Amino acid sequence: MTRLPILTMTSPEDSVASDSSVSAASEIPSETATAVRRLPRWLKRPLPQPGMAWTSGIISDLRLETVCESAKCPNRSECWSSKTATFMIGGNVCTRPCGFCAVPKGKTEALEIDEPERVAEAAARLGLRYVVITSVTRDDLSDGGAEHWFRTILAVRERTGAQIEVLTPDFRGNRDAVTRVIAAQPDVFNHNTETVPRLYHRVRRNADYQRTLDLLRQVREEAPHIPTKSGLMLGLGETLDELLEVLADLRSAGCSMLTLGQYLQPSAEHLPVERYLPPEEFDEIGETARKLGFSMVASGPFVRSSYHAGEMAEQVL
Degrees (nearest 5) of the Cα angle 34, 36, 38? Predict the structure, then answer.
């Protein structure tokens, strides 16, 4: 089994996971609100580097949305400085009130018919050979935006020839919508689990844990050649036992790629951080995930679904 380095750029502790098994207690304790507000030393990020303005200019010129900006991703300066970004289609307003996400919520607008071509143009200008596309959740659309997804994937592939990873919503369990996205033949199909079932009611409101597993299982059944991927945020109050149960469920659904990262509160209006996990604990949990059979695992404080996604995918494609 190929090992993927822990994808963090913070301190010497953030290295390839050791061969030890998880030694943490099964209960992941909460911290006081005072302690949570103070970021530990391993959650410091570098200042923006040259190249960030280039990426920003292309995104602005083509009137595109990115999850990097909308979700206030802590890795934006690093990724944009490297001339890469994760495109977010379907507008910049989400129909779901998730407690962790900084993407605006409210009334959506009509899909922009030329958005697929603009995303493709941006990918071409940036010289991307691996393109990650996500979207807001569009529960207001009968197909959840699946046809828009289909057109965007085809446009990017035709314009660039790049490999494409999709990070989709759950389409409210609409199997036909999932099948339509599969028909565009993305190279990796990602759908995030985000957290453990007990916390769904406050973290992923209007989502359903079983629906997430069913979507991943459907992709594996209809397109076994397409690797499936999922990610979770840690530090929201989950226990280790709960987390390991989720990882087992994901493996049973055929999911082979996994990302584990630290939840960071984007604003005072969002869910608070219950605990900051140290890099060594991410290493241990990541190693356990490998032992459970995930072929590719990225586990670390700054790991996000699309962070170094191309490097992760090249190990399995």
Answer: 85
